[in-house]
Amino acid sequence: MTTHPVLTATDEANPALDIYRQFRGLIVSGQLGANERLPTVRQTASDLGVAPGTAARAYKLLEQDGLVVTRTAAGTRVAPSAAVLPGPVLRRVRELVAETASAGAEVDDVIDVLRLVWRANVGEGSAAASEPGA
To answer: Considering the entire predicted model, what is its pTM?
Structure first.
């Protein structure tokens, strides 16, 4: 079994959405590869200190987006068709993170600016489509 990057609990208002975003990030960054097994819902809930129902909602969102496939005997696995960001994009993201950290900027501020720039350059429809329930 592959060692999974550790998820961290956050204090967001919607923990299921936060868990969804964390796993989605791991999948699109390639840190969780196609057919790789996710921890069980109970394990995720225990690791993050949330109710199993909260973790289950996050897994359901991942499944609705086609990022994971759940089968009773096989558990929840990353879908073979899950999209991974292109290498050049991942490199630029890593560069942005390094520059952000060295400048002492807040991650939430950078994410907010990134969303605004994205919407201004790509359009509101594309940005909204990437959020579950949008």
So the answer is: 0.70
